[in-house]
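R.M. (postdoc): so does anyone remember the format we settled on? I'll just put the structure tokens first.
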């Protein structure tokens, strides 16, 4: 599709989606949400893409929902289709077979943070600031904030952040496990590229199936999740990439994976 508020490009093994509403600090309009979902799906279909990077500007990853549009949503009947736009983006991110990395600079607030929570890995610039401010405006975080945040940082920490609408910086985000790395300002996208370059040296089926195991298993009881893991592991043993990977290890050479 033609994009108007996102930029999509492929650089080496990385498919990069950049939100591009700088005048609105990448506030999540209806159109931006639709284009984000389409961009994830487009990159999912490209075999040369081994990881998807979602980013914004150095000043703002995203400040959340576009409140000018959100003000028009004044009934549950209007809210549900709007919520589905968010859910469509996060579903495609979490169900992509490729690793999804959020490269976060500047403001990452409420809906913006909820989108970032659906990434597999989050990297922040030193100037990144985070918050879910729903309690300040009389709403409830409705795009995954009450569910994904506690799964990532723990129940008590998540509840404190949700109840207070407190802003916190990149150092605190790293300390609670929300982000895995803090990069110098202006270098967060480069850090994400380095990570995707590393992913690209690994077996794509392994990454996709381990992502499926984690995403699905986290919502199952332990025995069921271990059963799922065993089934996926058994499937991997029948692939050409498994044979190549083990042979390369024994022969002390670099594996050449083909995704089969």
């Amino acid at each position: 599709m033609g994009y108007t508020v996102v930029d999509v490009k492929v650089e080496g093994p990385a498919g990069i989606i950049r939100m591009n509403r700088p005048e609105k600090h990448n506030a999540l309009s209806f159109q931006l949400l639709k284009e984000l979902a389409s961009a994830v799906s487009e990159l999912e279909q490209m075999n040369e893409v081994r990881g998807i990077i979602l980013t914004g500007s150095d000043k703002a990853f995203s400040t959340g929902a576009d409140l000018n549009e959100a003000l028009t949503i004044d009934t549950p009947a209007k809210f549900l289709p709007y919520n589905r736009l968010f859910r469509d983006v996060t579903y495609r991110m979490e169900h992509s077979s490729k690793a999804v990395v959020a490269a976060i600079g500047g403001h990452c607030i409420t809906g913006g943070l909820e989108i970032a929570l659906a990434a597999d890995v989050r990297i922040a610039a030193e100037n990144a600031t985070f918050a879910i401010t729903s309690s300040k405006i009389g709403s409830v975080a409705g795009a995954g904030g009450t569910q994904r945040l506690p799964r990532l940082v723990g129940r008590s920490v998540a509840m404190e952040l949700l109840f207070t609408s407190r802003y916190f910086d990149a150092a605190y985000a790293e300390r609670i496990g929300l982000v895995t790395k803090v990069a110098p300002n202006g270098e967060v996208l480069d850090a994400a590229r380095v990570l995707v370059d590393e992913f690209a040296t690994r077996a794509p089926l392994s990454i996709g199936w381990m992502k499926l195991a984690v995403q699905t298993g986290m919502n199952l009881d332990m025995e069921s999740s271990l059963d799922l893991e065993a089934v996926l592991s058994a499937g991997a043993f029948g692939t050409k990439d498994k044979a190549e990977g083990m042979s390369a290890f024994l022969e002390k050479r670099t594996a050449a994976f083909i995704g089969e």
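R.M.: ...and that's the designed sequence above, right after the tokens. Also worth knowing: The beta strands are 6-11, 14-19, 51-55, 60-62, 99-104, 107-109, 121-125, 129-131, 168-169, 181-183. The domain at 204-250 is CATH 1.10.12.10 (Lyase 2-enoyl-coa Hydratase; Chain  A, domain 2).
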